[in-house]
């Protein structure tokens, strides 16, 4: 009688896995020996500071502040915008393959918390009643903390409002700019932030104008309660096991928990700063380009999938911010972690995107390269003029529509999205100087060990049955 070899999550025999692990360990050991062990790893994983403003090349002749009226949520929620741009409904209906379908109905169908019985009663792992319940409940606090904040509503009712409640009449005096930064970050961590960075207000990355979906009108920064001088940027880690269930509803439970954490933490920090006598507003998904500010604050780099990738967390984060008039504070510098260079060679997020929305271009560009990107009826998107990878959000959204819930495959697939094991951090640290062949090797190791391509059914079972 013969015995079949044990199988790993990806189906490869364990013996093969062990041989690959030995090779990977040899590479890691070589890096550790040549670099000086833990101190070297700790230094490298912090990235290399960048001097001289925004670290990604910018074409100033093209770059303009983003008009929030052209955002997907503004278009969906605004009757004015939909009357002004009916072609967008028509084009999205064609993409969705549903003539007569409206952009408004389609968008919120993928984000709605009232599900028809046939969806609640599904037997499909990841789409069962317990998964929809998780998806809805994780976002439930936002009904009270910041209505429509996750959809980009500026001045959202609740703790994300612009009201300067609890503003102290006397200002606390910090001992130094470094003292201010240390204490603000300590408070942010206490309130729930995973990581914190502080940078200056840069109008290039502010929505101008903003768009108020409740009042169906544009809002200028002249209407803001004060002139922001500083932006405190916070990362909120999403549950690793939850994200692995993507594209199931369970994974969006992890996303919605991140949205709730954003409101709680940013709202608490803004209140803390106001009680010190400085004006402050919590920013959720509104008002500013948080990926750009996260880069400026040294928290990560822009990536192929359009997200901020943070060392040790990858794109498995949500980003909140606090805008304040306090400027007596030490600013963080952008840092090079080797992430963009890695993205040039990896392409796993593009390979595993179910709608082919993520570009497979070999090099970044200053503008989108996908079909009809220059057609304003089709190609409205984020800011052009930054040397980066541009993706087609319409294709992404089409899958949301088909899937009946959002997707996080590009987060799940990213090799930077890893548990906090020593060998993962060692390889993260090496990225500040390793080149293409090593990146390709790391991509294959990620696939081999099944981190970013776990079967949804298995991931769903692991999530619900994991001992905690």
From TrEMBL:
Swiss-Prot/TrEMBL keywords: 4Fe-4S, Cell membrane, Iron, Iron-sulfur, Membrane, Metal-binding, Repeat, Signal, Transmembrane, Transmembrane helix
Cofactor(s), names only, from the UniProt record: corrinoid
Pfam families cross-referenced by the UniProt entry: Fer4_16
InterPro entries: 4Fe4S_Fe-S-bd, 4Fe4S_Fe_S_CS, RDH, TAT_signal
Domain 4Fe-4S ferredoxin-type: start-end pairs: 334-363
Residue ranges of coiled coil: none
Keyword Magnesium: no
Chain segments annotated as transmembrane: 21-41
SUPFAM superfamilies: 4Fe-4S ferredoxins
Subcellular location: Cell membrane
GO cellular component terms given for this protein: plasma membrane
Gene Ontology terms, MF aspect: 4 iron, 4 sulfur cluster binding; metal ion binding
Protein known as: Reductive dehalogenase
């Amino acid at each position: 009688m013969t015995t079949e070899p044990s199988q790993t999550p990806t189906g490869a025999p364990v013996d093969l896995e062990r041989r690959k692990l030995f090779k990977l360990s040899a590479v890691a050991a070589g890096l550790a020996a040549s670099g000086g062990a833990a101190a070297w790893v700790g230094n490298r994983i912090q990235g290399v500071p960048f001097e001289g403003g925004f670290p990604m090349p910018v074409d100033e002749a093209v770059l303009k502040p983003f008009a929030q009226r052209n955002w997907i949520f503004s278009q969906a929620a605004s009757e004015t915008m939909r009357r002004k741009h009916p072609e967008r409904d028509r084009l999205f209906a064609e993409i969705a393959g549903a003539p007569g379908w409206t952009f408004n109905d389609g968008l919120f169908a993928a984000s709605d918390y009232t599900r028809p019985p046939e969806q609640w009663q599904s037997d499909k792992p990841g789409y069962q009643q317990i998964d929809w319940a998780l998806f809805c409940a994780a976002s439930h606090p936002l009904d009270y903390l910041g209505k429509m904040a996750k959809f980009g509503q500026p001045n959202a009712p609740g703790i994300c409002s612009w009201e300067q409640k609890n503003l102290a009449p006397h200002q606390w005096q910090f001992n130094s700019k470094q003292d201010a930064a240390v204490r603000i970050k300590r408070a942010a961590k206490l309130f729930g932030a995973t990581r914190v960075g502080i940078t200056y207000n840069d109008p290039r990355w502010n929505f101008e104008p903003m768009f108020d979906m409740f009042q169906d009108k544009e809002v200028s920064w002249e209407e803001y309660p004060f002139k922001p001088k500083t932006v405190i940027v916070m990362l909120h880690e999403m549950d690793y096991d939850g994200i692995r269930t993507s594209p199931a509803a369970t994974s969006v439970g992890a996303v919605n928990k991140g949205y709730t954490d954003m409101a709680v933490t940013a709202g608490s920090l803004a209140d803390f700063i106001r009680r010190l006598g400085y004006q402050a507003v919590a920013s959720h998904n509104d008002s500013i380009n948080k990926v750009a500010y996260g880069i400026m604050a040294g928290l990560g780099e822009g990536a192929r999938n359009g997200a901020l990738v943070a060392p040790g967390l990858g794109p498995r984060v949500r980003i909140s911010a606090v805008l304040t008039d306090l400027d007596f504070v030490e600013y963080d510098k952008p840092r090079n972690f080797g992430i963009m260079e890695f993205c040039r060679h990896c392409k796993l997020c593009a390979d595993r995107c179910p709608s082919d929305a993520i570009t497979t271009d070999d090099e970044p560009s200053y503008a989108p390269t996908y079909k009809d990107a220059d057609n304003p009826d089709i190609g409205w998107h984020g800011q052009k003029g930054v040397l980066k990878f541009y993706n087609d959000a319409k294709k992404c959204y089409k899958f949301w529509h088909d899937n009946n819930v959002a997707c996080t495959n590009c987060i799940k697939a990213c090799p930077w999205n890893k548990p906090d094991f020593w060998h993962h951090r060692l390889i993260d640290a090496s990225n500040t100087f390793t080149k293409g062949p090593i990146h390709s090797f790391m991509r294959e190791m990620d696939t081999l060990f099944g981190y970013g391509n776990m079967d949804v059914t298995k991931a769903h079972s692991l999530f619900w049955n994991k001992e905690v």
